[in-house]
Amino acid sequence: MERFYRAVVRHPKMVIALFLVCLSVSLALSPLVGVNYNVADFLPADTISTRAIEVMTEQYDTGVPNARALARDVSVAEALALKSALAAIDGIDAVMWLDDEADILQPVEYLDPAVVARYYAEGDALFSLTIQESKAIAALADVRALLGEDAALSGGAVSTAEAKTSTIGQVQIISLCAVAFVIVMLLLTTTSWMDPLVVLLSLGVAIGINMGTNLIFGTVSFVTDASGAVLQLAVSLDYSIFLLHRFDECRRECADAKEAMVQALCRSTSSILSSGLTTVIGFLALCLMKFLIGPDLGLALAKGVAISLITVLVFTPVLILTLLPGIDKARHRSFMPSWRGLGQLIRRLMIPMVTVFAIVVLPSYLAAQKTDYYYGAAYIFGEDTEVGRDAAEINSLYGKETALVLMVPRNETARELALSAQVQKIPQVTGVTSWVDTAGATIPPEYVDASIREMLLSDEYSRMVINLAMDVEGAEPFEVVADIRALAEEYFPGEWLMAGEAASTYDLMVTIQQDMLLVNLVAVGAVFVVLLLSMRSVVLPFILVLCIEGAIWLNTAVPYFMGQHVFYISYLIISSVQLGATVDYAILFTDRYMEFRRQLPKREALVITVQTVTTSILTSGLTMTVVGLLMGFVSTHQILAQLGMFMGRGTLLSMISVFFVLPGMLYLLDGLIRRGTLGAGAHADTTTEMEGTLDA
After folding, report:
1. Which residue, 8, 581, 596, 649, could crosslink 605 as a Cys pair with Cβ 3.0–4.6 Å?
2. Residue 397, class by beta-carbon neighbours within 10 Å (0-12 exposed, 13-18 middle, 19+ buried)?
3. Among 57-66, 79-88, 202-211, 425-434, which stretch is predicted with the lowest mean pLDDT?
4. Among candidates 616, 646, 618, which has minimal Cα distance to 631?
5. DSSP conformation class of 445
6. What CA–CA distance (Å, rounded) separates 58 from 51?
7. How wide is the angle at C-alpha 364 spanned by C-alphas 361 and 370, nearest 5°?
């Protein structure tokens, strides 16, 4: 590697030009990357609901009802006129109202009260809409303009459209705040006013290249688009910090700046690559998820970290050397303390902290397994948002409602009649719109209104729209979906298909639960192997993985003790992200400890290690913490907000574990570590003079 680094520092203009060309191309490509906000689209292709949607798209012009719209203070005649106007809006495929289930030529008071209550109450009309996903934003804007500002809108299409419009602005706020905080942290933790510029330029190049090269995926998920850049900034920041601090150390030993940079690169490459590789593996573990948001985020972030590593080891050194005259002119005294006092405090607290860690880690693991989860996107906007308030109001007036579409083979009238009758016996079913229920079993299709015929019949299928008074996810909805599927299998074995938000969420639950154990085991196992090979130790990987995994269990147990529901997507992602991103701190701490341990007794080695690494770890760790908390507090999209809170709280817990638990483990297991590590060469603790100095 030394020969390569010497070649890099000899050709700074060539290196800078190459990276700037890559950045320019990537920035030009970045706007072409599509973003998908629909969680259900990331289900595996072989799930029942996914196949049903594909077939329904081929066979029918309309999909599953995915929105409800409440119009205030309208008569029946006005509601019918609004229905026609809604159906004429571009992007709305179908509108259902009271006249689809009852003969409204009769006075409303003579109709079935239960049917009327689902569509018309106290002079307000509730319409069920089927909206095209690609046109949802414009269509919903037209709906609100038609119905007035006092209208209320809810449903999956509304949530997805709101996610598209609100997330972009919120991500910009989060990114600006994150950059501002990074600048402040770097000003405090470096010794030149120019250092923040160097770090941000370096990481900005890496992030820009990564965003543009996401075009190889065609489309990315909203999670990747919203969190990818800030996550890459947070997890990659420490690589630049490691290199800057090593370069400062080497310059004190070597007057020639280029030679000092080569030596800094040689000395820091092992730590940087080990840290980067564990982070990449943590992200790549997400690729094992069948739920495709995992691979989407995992590949994008793994690529981003790899690009950051290349940038830090190739572009950053020549950038530092190019700007070195300005960096030296802008030198200032360090604003950081020596951390000697912190080292002494940790030395005194490390054994009690290991004891506390041992007591709480198992209960935390068990508590994390008992947390209540949301699997879909039904609750991504809380009641403090317009979407949440509208949904709560509609639910309070008309009750909760969702729709399922069940497709069965056409021209099987007897079986379809029997199935419909059984479905209608389910307590949560409030109505079934099907060919046999609407047109009757004996009326030829050509004698039925074309709009009804096209909505319910295709060349191969007869479609049943099942309205249910329930949430789209939870124990009750999942049970109902399973019951209807069982009935469909009983009457049409292997021939039926079911779509709808509740059906997709049910499939999400099944798919995601299958992912959990595999993803976590592979992430932990792969990180363990990397540490085993890089540290040449059979003991240290156990210590480091346990230290960080314990912090992860503590982090994911918090919602259980607070009585909160957790979006399972956030939980799965953070398990890999926290391991891959924060094990870097444990690696840096352990590497420097082993280095000092060769010359010093273990207590002194620990104190000096704390002095040496604290600034680097705090710079990166506090940045990840603040970025996470910003996502948590700023984002109204609850999946992103929970991911942010997990990241912020988890990074803080990982830092506490590294500073207060890891030293105690290294101290207590020092002898075992020396025997189980190649080339440990530790200093023997044979004198008491140093101990007395430490206690002083």
Report:
1. 596
2. middle
3. 57-66
4. 646
5. G
6. 11
7. 150
Give the closest residue to 634 by CA, choosing from 262, 205, 170. Answer: 170
Give CA angle at 625 (622, 626), nearest 5°. Answer: 85
Q: Is 581:234 a contact under the CB 8 Å cutoff?
A: yes
Q: How far is CA 37 from CA 34, 223, 645, in A?
A: 10, 8, 20
User: Where does the pLDDT of residue 656 fall: very low under 50, low under 70, confident under 90, or very high at 90 and above?
Assistant: very high
Q: What Rg, from alpha-carbon coordinates, does the chain have?
A: 30
Q: Which of 547, 534, 535, 530 lies closest to 597 in space, CA to CA? A: 535
User: Does the pLDDT of residue 177 top 90, yes or no?
Assistant: no
Question: Which one-letter amino acid corresponds to residue 119?
Answer: Y
**What residues contact residue 129 under an 8 Å CB cut-off, 6+ apart?**
65, 66, 67, 68, 69, 86, 92, 94, 95, 96, 143, 155, 157
Q: Sorting pLDDT into bands at 50, 70 and 90, what band is 207? A: very high
Local confidence band at 426 (pLDDT 50, 70, 90 cut-offs): very high
The least confident of 53-57, 553-557, 650-654, 691-695 is: 691-695
Most confident of 226-235, 310-319, 556-565: 310-319
Judged by DSSP in three states, 432 sits in strand
Q: How confident is the prediction for the chain on average, in pLDDT?
A: 86
Residue given tokens 């070597």 in the structure block: 254
pLDDT digits (tens, 9 = 90+) for 616-627: 888 888 888 988
Separation between Cα atoms, residue 21 and residue 16, nearest integer Å:
9
What pLDDT does residue 123 have?
Answer: 86
Q: Give me the pLDDT at residue 450, please.
A: 64
Strand partners, 70: 126, 152
User: How far does CA 258 lie from the centroid of its chain?
Assistant: 41
Three state DSSP letters for 220-288? EEHHHHHHHHHHHHHHHHHHHHHHHHHHHHHHHHCCCHHHHHHHHHHHHHHHHHHHHHHHHHHHHHHHH
Using alpha carbons, select from 376, 377, 399, 375 the residue that is nearest to residue 162: 377
Backbone angle region of 434, left / alpha / beta, with phi > 0 → left and psi within -120 to 50 → alpha: beta
The whole-number pLDDT of residue 360 equals 93
Contact 153, 140 (CB under 8 A): yes
CA dist., res. 130 & res. 250, Å (int): 66
pLDDT of 377-412, one tens digit each?
A: 777 887 778 888 888 888 888 888 888 999 999 888
Task: Measure the CA–CA gap between 367 and 334, rounded to whole angstroms.
Answer: 43
Q: Please name the amino acid found at residue 216.
A: I
For the purposes of burial, counting CB atoms within 10 Å of the CB of 440, is it exposed (0-12), middle (13-18) or buried (19 or more)? exposed
Vertex 551: Cα angle to 187 and 382 (nearest 5): 80
| Token pair of 77 as six digits | 């005649």
Which of 331-340, 444-453, 583-592 is predicted least confidently?
A: 444-453
Sign of torsion over alpha carbons 45, 51, 53, 58: positive
- Please give the pLDDT value at position 439: 64
CA-to-CA dists, residue 640 to 174, 227, 275, angstroms: 12, 8, 25
Residue 372 in 3-state DSSP? Answer: strand
- Quick check: 217 and 304 in contact, CB under 8 A? no
Q: What's this model's pTM, rounded to 2 decimal places?
A: 0.78
Q: How far apart are CA 563 and CA 222, in angstroms?
A: 27
Q: Is the pLDDT of residue 303 over 70?
A: yes
SS3 430: strand
Structure tokens at 110: 């003579």
Percent of the chain topping pLDDT 70? 95
Report the C-alpha gap between 557 and 537 in whole angstroms.
31
